[in-house]
Amino acid sequence: MRIASHCRITPQHCLLNGRPLTMEQSQSGLLTDLYRSLSIGYPKFYKMDNLCKAGFLAAELVVSGSDIDGQTPRHDVAVLCMNSCSSLDDDMQHQQNIRTDNYFPSPAVFVYTLANIVTGEIAIRHKLLGESSFYIAERFSSEQMAQLIEIAFSDNDINCLLCGWIDVLGEKLDVLMMRIDRADGTAPTAENIDIIYNNI
Known about the structure:
By secondary structure, the chain is an alpha/beta fold. It has helices at 30-38, 50-63, 88-99, 107-110, 117-126, 142-152, 190-198, and strands at residues 2-9, 14-16, 19-20, 77-83, 132-136, 160-169, 172-181.
């Protein structure tokens, strides 16, 4: 296995394979600015919550230039994501909605009160039909991520894995996304994952 591509997104940094991405900044926020700079043309992006936007953009970056074209359904690509906040960012908004006197909770918020929706958004965008999973962990752990990557590739039908840590809560934005291929190269060991995660 090898780390074919990786990106890191925080409020201060947006890196693709260790190099900063340039984008015009506006009042819309980092994720929207990044979306616009990529010229994707996917209007559904604006309806997503911040967790999905972050995962969507990170996946978009790591599949760029690969044979994952979003046109051909792929059964051999899996999606594995993790975070520590689950969907708490949306849960708090939903709770605020139902506290009001009128009690009209927004379906637009409620639909995102499951963290695994982000893996679904990534799979839909890129037509990925392999396994997908979302794990909740107390904190980022490269050791745990390396173990989950190894387990994913124990399935001989999987040739590629989009693997990410996508933690979003209020102003907190902590994203690492990697495209792991079944090929020789920089192995997704805990040490190598730590280097990428901490190189900001």
